[in-house]
Amino acid sequence: MMLNIQDLHTYYGAIEVLLGISIEVQEGELVCVIGANGAGKSTLMHSIVGLAPQKQGKTFFFGDDISKLPAYKIARSGLSLVPEERQLFNDLTVQENLIMGAYSRKKSEIQQSFSFIFDLFPRLAERRQQRAGTLSGGEQQMLAIARALMSQPRLLLLDEPSLGLAPLLVAEIFKTIQRLNNEGLTILLVEQNANMALSIASRGYVLSTGSVYLEGPSDELRQNPEVQSAYLGGSSGSSKW
Amino acid sequence: MMSTQLSTILQQIVNALTIGSIYALLAIGFSMVYGVLRLINFAHGDVFMLGAYFAFLVFQALESKFLTGILLAVVLTGITGLIIERAAFRPMRGAPEGNLFISSLAVSMLIQNGVIMILGPQPQSFLIPGFLGKSINIGDVVITNIAITIFVVTIILLIILVLFLTRTKLGISMRATASNLDACHLMGINVNIAIAVAFGVSSLIAGVGGILWATRYTIFNPFTGAVPGIKAFIGALIGGIGSLQGAVIGGYLLGMLEVLVVILLPPEFAGYRDVFVFLMLIVTLLVRPQGIMGKTEK
Amino acid sequence: MKIYFTKKTIFPLIIIGILAGLILIAQHSLSIYQIGLLSLVGINAILVISLNITNGYTGLFSLAIGGLMGISAYVSGLLTLSTDYKAINLPDLPQWLIAAQWPLLPALLVGASITVVIGTLFHWPSLRLKGHYFALASLAFTEIVRLLASNMKKITRGALSLTGVASLSNLWWIYGWLVIEVLVVIQLFRSRHGRALIAIRDDEGLAQLKGINVAFYKAFAFMISAFFAGVGGALWVHYTNIVSPSSFRLAVIFTLFIMFTIGGKASISGSIIGAVIITLLPQILRPLEEGSVIFGINVPELYGLTQLILAVFLILLLIKRPQGIFGGRELSFKWLERQFKGLFSSD
User: Fold this and answer.
1) In which band, very low, low, confident or very high, does the pLDDT at A237 lie, cut at 50, 70 and 90?
2) How do the domains of chain C map onto residue ranges?
3) What is the chain C residue with the closest CA to B90?
4) Is A87 within 8 Å of chain B by CB?
5) Averaged confidence pLDDT in chain A
6) Which of B99, B237, B278 sits opposite C144 (nearest CB)?
7) Could you read off the pLDDT of C38-65 as tens digits, one per residue?
8) Does C250 reach chain B within 8 Å, measured CB to CB?
9) Model confidence at B87: pLDDT above 90
């Protein structure tokens, strides 16, 4: 088992945001976590990578207990998070963002990664020397994913990759995510757009006010009438448009 | 033959570039630390002065060659910066800005009084090699070798700094830290190290500045750093705090402003020179607080 | 503003009575040196509470206090100085000013009022600035006042200082004004105006949305603070008998900030205790500075030791207990209870 989260409780001050979450991700899987706004999806991601202030419960990565590690050490052990709102280095160029993504690797080894990234996201290659803050929304999301991939993670975590993107771009991004998984990358995806998430994931968890409400293969979840009414029929994440 | 007016102007330009260089070096340090920590480091001017003091002590104690002594003094100043960051600022990471500001004020007092306690408040100086005392004359304009040295050293340091910040992983990580601290954790960047390096580098440069100052003005005392420190900070602010190009621009602008004020102000008002610097600060704060090169902060 | 006549108001009146009694005793039984220390404590308390009004209650990080007390010190000093002194040393002053030789109260009131006017006019456009931008503007104010004091030699004698200011301050004036200030602050922060200021400190945007006129209230807080800074400055110059541009340089402001930090934001009792500690501490350390013998070892003169220790102390305080002694609350029986319980429990 690659990622094993056992009974995770996360607190912001006195408020308990995650009330005992248990999630598993096996090597090679594409697992999604869906749920409404405020269900705790982003908090879950932050807790996994070590950015949550207070928590209880254990998180195992390839059997190692990473629950108490500082965030930068967790990143170096092979978990890479693409955060909600991307969190790019806006003052740095695309190239420099990618260099930072590969921070924990030796300079001599990362050339290959550059080729891979620019093959995956040709638009980024065009904008190599451009400052990240000047990119469009879709390009920024691509850069955020690319940056996370530069560290050659064993597990890629994506926090709401569809946020703020037009439907066409969302489809493009999800195609890319699926491609990455097909090529062997294990992915844990957190999404408000349940439609898209369940269409590419093999398994899913439904998060509701801090707890895992349902779990199972994505086909099952898609047939589930509760899931359909709450998250699917007409209430996909892009209902803003 | 050059007219006296032209000569005066050229002479003042030389002066502006000289003092502007030192302000630029100091301003960069301010901007660097503000960039990574959002801290206005009041103690920076005193670290600047420490550069001169370390040089003085090194020459007293070791009787080394000039260049070796200077390098050692600069390194010592950089190390002092690392110690200050570790002892006074890192434990306060995440505290409200006001507290950090007061803390830097405290560090400033600490340095000044530490020097007073150990060496006393009287002015000190150290000997500089003969060739620095000479100068070139172009018409009526006197360009001292010291002025040339200051300018050249500054430019070289700036080039090295730019290379460091754009070509090395560590340098880019410092800029990344200034840009988005949270994202740095996700990259596996040890933010503590990046911040410490920022402090160390800024103190190193300040040390160089202090030594250059001492060669230009000969004497220094524990309070010498305070005024140039504030002025350089104002320069950094005008240029755009958090932006290194802004710091350099601001530093040289301040040098020009000072010189301009000296020329334009009748001699009996000479003491009011610094008032203009502070007025420039107020104007900048009211009109364009992010400075020339800065972006509006969220 | 309503004045609340409750049990809580009777309590301070009793305190005032006790204070008056203590002052009487002090004046008759303490040495001049000790009375001097008490005077200094009182003056510092006034200044720190003034600082607290802007920095603690309203969240305006202000370094203006140096300039503010300086203006008042010079103005009130000039008004009370003897005609002879002024005729000889400041002959270029206007005739009416040279002839003037006022008693303390009017000079103090004029000094404080001018401080309010100049301070508010200067800071008016800067009050809308955020956080450390405002701090820098206020720093510029103090520095400009200092530079003007240095250079306007015909009025201030520059670095030569205004000397021979009469010792018009005494414990009654100082503690009298302290009581007035404390009462004003208590009343203010019980009223809705005070709550508005605290709301501004906690979240300016939110306060704005709640309909609080932020600009007005910031100016209001600043003016009250400036007034009492002026009072403090006037009382101070009539205690030290001298004022010069270096009297309100940053090192002096720094000392006030230590007192403020020890006492904690928005705490009157904290500010007073902070003033007591930091005023008295250097007196204890002074012998060390001048060289002493500890356990038979000759310790040489260590000038600067006091400031150094204060600086280290402040840094440690900011790291370990930035909220100060009372953490934003007042000295109360509950607090004392908790402290004693802490001492005796095995927690």
Assistant:
1) very low
2) 7-246, 249-347
3) C319
4) yes
5) 88
6) B278
7) 999 999 999 999 999 999 888 889 999 9
8) yes
9) yes
Q: In the complex, which subunits touch B with 3 or more CB pairs below 8 angstroms? A: A, C
- Yes or no: domain B4-287 corresponds to CATH 1.20.140: no
Predicted pLDDT at A233: 67
The pLDDT, as a whole number, for residue A2 is 87
Measure the N-to-C terminal CA separation of chain A; round to a whole number of Å.
39
Complex ipTM > 0.85: yes
Tokens of C309: 């220790």
Interface of chain B toward chain C, CB-CB under 8 angstroms: 40, 87-88, 91-92, 95, 97-99, 101-103, 105-110, 112-117, 120-121, 226, 230, 237, 269, 271-272, 274-275, 278-279, 281-282, 285-286, 289
**d(C-alpha A219, C-alpha A200), whole Å:** 10
Backbone angles phi, psi at C75, to 5 degrees: -65, -50
Nearest to B106 among C55, C143, C314 (CB): C314
Which member of B169, B176, B182 has the closest CB to residue A92? B176
pTM of the model: 0.86
Q: List, for chain C, all residue ranges whose pLDDT scores fall below the cut of 50.
A: 346-347
Residue whose token pair is 């000889």: C88
Strands (E) located in A126-217: 155-159, 186-191, 203-208, 211-217
- Predicted confidence (pLDDT) at residue A16 exceeds the cutoff of 90: no
Q: pLDDT by residue (tens digit) across C113-126? A: 999 999 999 999 99
Residue C81 gets which letter from DSSP?
S
Calpha distance B35→B51 (Å, rounded): 23
Q: Enumerate the domain spans of chain B.
A: 4-287
Q: State whether A90 and B180 contact (CB < 8 Å).
A: yes
Do C and A touch, 3+ Cβ pairs within 8 Å? The answer is no
List helix spans (H) across chain C: 7-29, 32-51, 65-80, 83-89, 95-99, 104-123, 131-151, 153-156, 171-190, 192-202, 204-209, 214-240, 250-263, 268-289, 305-320, 333-344
